[in-house]
Amino acid sequence: MHAWTFLSLVAGAAAAATTTLPQSAGSTSVPTAIPVSGSYDGGMKRFERNPSVCQGQSETGEKDAMFILENGATLSNVIIGKSQAEGVHCKGTCTLNNVWWADVCEDAATFKQSSGTSYVNGGGAFKAEDKIFQFNGRGTVRIRDFYAEDYGKVVRSCGNCSGNGGPRNIVIENSIAVDGGVLCGINTNYGDTCRISNTCQDDGKSCDRYIGNSNGKEPSKIGSGPDGQYCTVSGLSENC
Predict the structure, then answer these.
(1) How far apart are CA 10 and CA 173, in angstroms?
(2) Cα separation of 172 and 142, whole Å?
(3) Over its length of 240 residues, how does the chain's per-residue pLDDT go in tens digits?
(4) GO: which molecular function terms (predicted)?
(5) CATH number of the domain to which 146 belongs
(6) Which domain holds residue 53?
(7) Are 87 and 151 in contact (CB under 8 A)?
(8) DSSP strands (E only) in 81-146
(9) Element (H or E) spanning 9, and its range?
(10) Structurally, how many domains does the chain consist of?
(11) Residue/partner pairs of 210-215 with CB below 8 Å, 24 or more apart
(12) Is 26 exposed, middle or buried (0-12, 13-18, 19+ CB in 10 A)?
């Protein structure tokens, strides 16, 4: 690839992702998670749980999410505040359009689909001590034009779930990630893949590869970076 082509791809990635939390158009506080069937447009309001259910990295479950999406649902134009714990739970495939997390707490979103493709289009997340997206199901999650800041991993295939398996396919395109770790954590023994293109991570961190299990033990890390099979990268920049 010519140098000018590479630079133009990186510039395109930087232009695609918004890097600041949008100003909210008001706020809403609710005592329980909001269920979504079909489509829900939040009009860029900030959504909070009251009382707060955030317990840091303690696993709390679906009931402490901000939104629970039924199979095929679409959530658009919301800012999720720091008082929730589990962000968005997608019970099947889902689409997240311009969804922002001001403070992730435990996870920003959990994908539980048994097959098919879920989409994260635009948006961003801040202050994720561990992972932003948790991929527990199967199929594919496609993330594009996304911004991540101050995080552990952008997306992780579940490493030790009961009934664990795969494959889980992750695609990250035209996104920006700073002050954090790898873009993907995948389990190669389950055939997981991560494909990264035209994206910036300020330390050049792409993938961590693991041996997943279903017994709850900490999975073994077997390598980092692209390997040409499970983790493939094109147009990855460190100049975000």
Answers:
(1) 11
(2) 6
(3) 333 333 334 444 444 799 999 999 999 999 999 999 999 999 999 999 999 999 766 667 899 999 999 999 999 999 999 999 999 999 999 999 999 999 999 999 999 999 999 999 999 999 999 999 999 999 999 999 999 999 999 999 999 999 999 999 999 999 999 999 999 999 999 999 999 999 999 999 999 999 999 999 999 999 999 999 999 999 999 999
(4) pectate lyase activity
(5) 2.160.20.10
(6) 3-237
(7) no
(8) 88-90, 94-101, 109-111, 117-121, 124-135, 139-144
(9) helix 3-16
(10) 1
(11) 210/157, 210/159, 210/185, 210/186, 211/187, 212/157, 212/158, 212/159, 212/160, 212/164, 212/166, 212/187, 213/159, 213/160, 213/164, 214/160, 214/161, 214/162, 214/163, 214/164, 214/165, 215/160
(12) exposed
Q: Which tokens go with 182? A: 């790898």
